[in-house]
Amino acid sequence: MSGRIPRGTSGAAELPAAPLDRASRLLAAARAHDLGGRLTEAAADYSAAILAAEESDGKPVLSEALRRLAVVCFRRQEMDAGRAHCARSLAVAQQARDPVLAAEALNTLGGSHLEGGDFDTAREVFERAIQLGGFRCPALRARIDQNLGIIANIQGELDRAAMHYHRALEAFRDVGDDRGCAIVYHNLGMVTADRQDWDVAERYFDRSQKFAESIGDVHLHASCLLNGTEVLIAKQRYDEARRNAEAALQIFDKLGIQRTKADAYKVLGIIYRETGRTVLAEARLHTALEIAAQSGNTLAEAEASRELARLYQEQGRNRDALRLLNTAHHLFRRLDARIDLVDITTKRTKLESVYLDTVRKWGQSIESADTYTFGHCERVAELAVRVAEALALPVSELTVIRMGAYLHDLGKVNVPAEILNKPGKLTSAEMDLMRQHTIYGIEMLAGIDFPWDIKPIVRSHHEKCDGTGYPDRLRGDEIPLSAQIVGIVDVYDALTSTRSYRAAMSHQEALGQLHQMSASWRPDVFAAFMTSVGGGAAPG
Fold first, then answer.
1. Angle between helices 258-274 and 278-295 (to 10 degrees)
2. How far is CA 358 from CA 313, 318, 329, 331, in A?
3. Is the pLDDT of residue 366 over 90?
4. Hey, CA dihedral for 480, 486, 488, 490, is it positive or negative?
5. What is the mean pLDDT of residues 482-509?
6. DSSP string of 369-390, one letter each residue
7. Which of 488, 461, 465 is nearest to 475 (CA)?
8. Full-prediction pTM beyond 0.70?
9. Residue 475: beta bridge partners?
10. What is the distance, to the nearest Å, from the Cα of residue 170 to the centroid of all Cα atoms in its chain?
11. What are the pLDDT digits (tens) for 66-112?
């Protein structure tokens, strides 16, 4: 995060310089390259400054040059090298008995742990930085507050994040640190966008961008352009969002920062999808996936997978969409295990919402050609969840049941329409073919590794506890509970709906039929159905 980089100093000499003066001059030149986004030149001058400072035994300049070279390494994702430079910067500062420089080194080191997702270590290092010397320097304390705000923001603690950011902003204003103010405004824009307060977020991004332009910080300028696109997309200002994302992409490409290039391509894919340019959307999102995987940007890879899945869903490519959503789900789980840079609860909730919408629309598309069954899966899903709640099943199991219910009749697309819509009784051969829909459904889901165990619902929702069901003639507890729940409401909805071969039954007539069939389901499932759907407790 750029909030960890303090403002440098500048200076020049007219005559050939002594080693220490030369080290200071090289440090100032390196800083100018750094702000201008010329990372190769910056790294070369920082390295030269280190050599010159070593020759003159200029420990303060040496510590500062090492720390700033570490920041360049972190931007390039050279994490081990960056941490080694930080450790040496800290050691040199301690030898020089300079607590502020030592705290600066710790703050930069803590930032690397923040980027790696190790929040506990990052907080510990930031606290050490405050105790060691951060309290002596208001600007440094402000940068540490900035980093603590970033952690809170990432973890979804938005009020706490805003508190840290505003405290940092006040300190930066007091010391006249324009770059510090620019970074705080940028982060306030992000936290305000998370609250969907778009007008305020836009004002923060605009302020940050003006500061970034005035001090010549191209990396921060690009970050403002890219992160501000969330506001523009929300306001449907798509052309402006596209221009900003493309400008940010050009800057990140010039800087050679692959991780943020993946984010830029993802944003462009979203913009093209929302404006109906599906070919361009697919191309940009595929590029985002490739760059994210190559650069190890797991979050961008997960989010690009989710956004490409939404595109496929809109095109009716449901199998492709679900495969990508599964990929995204696995990636978010990996992030969760690493405690990475993401509020996982919010991200996963958004992903599961897209997942559920895809499954729902796939189920609806199956029924769309049949006026008799249209809406059946939606009704079964709602009723099945009510039964599951009556059984006090956990929330995670409710998701399984809802998704399984949406797709329980998936295999019927492979059953001939003349059999599905036959007005009279089916022959034995026709019934055998109809019963194959449970197997067809499983075959259609082959290759889709669902995060939830919904396949038993698709296969076994017609099984009966007495062993007379299909396709496997399971008995009693051999039948998954989720399949029994979907199975009983499936029968109820079929009885109370008009079909090609009969009129709909009334609620009470259907309950009468179900009482006669009650041995088909576990007693607790039947009782929960009667309580939640039937309107009263099952008779003893």
1. 160
2. 6, 7, 14, 19
3. no
4. negative
5. 88
6. T-TTTTTHHHHHHHHHHHHHHH
7. 465
8. no
9. 466
10. 32
11. 999 999 998 887 889 999 999 999 999 999 999 989 999 999 998 88
